[in-house]
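Record 1 of the preview.
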Amino acid sequence: MRESDEIEAAMTRAEKSSLGHVPDPAQPRQLRDALGCFATGVTVITACEAGSTTPVGITVNSFASVSLDPALVLWSAARSSLRHQHFSAAPAFAIHVLRADQAPLADRFTRRGHGFEGLDFLRNEHDVPLLDGALARFECVTEATHEGGDHTIIIGRVVRFQVGQGEPLTFFRGGYGRITALD
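->
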């Protein structure tokens, strides 16, 4: 290969790599790592198990506002979660935005956490479990659900909300963190 051909091939490789990566379902780690560069808040979603009043909760970072009028929010439930069936069928739920000091609460509602075991909570008029002390809490009735790849997007109409004090718990590159507001 001539030197000019080698230079041309190296330039082509460099140009292709600067365009980025194509998502590969067989190797999701690169995409997951890239998505982890977006710092998000940490929430605990609570509801009742389908067909009962047994409380169920899950820690998620896929929460977003949708609309102020009407007041709508959304979050995404992984279909691979054992709790998916409960949340996708729930007529009502609550979203608790966690404070920076509430990482242990977030851990309770992960795959290996203790959930509601030994935890004090209240219930609202829809029988949804409510956790005390969150940075913000949104009590919702389910407005709509939409299939989105390997998740179900759950849209809730906010019927009541509460705002607390403190700094938010964040999730970034696979771990918890915190931020402070700029003045």
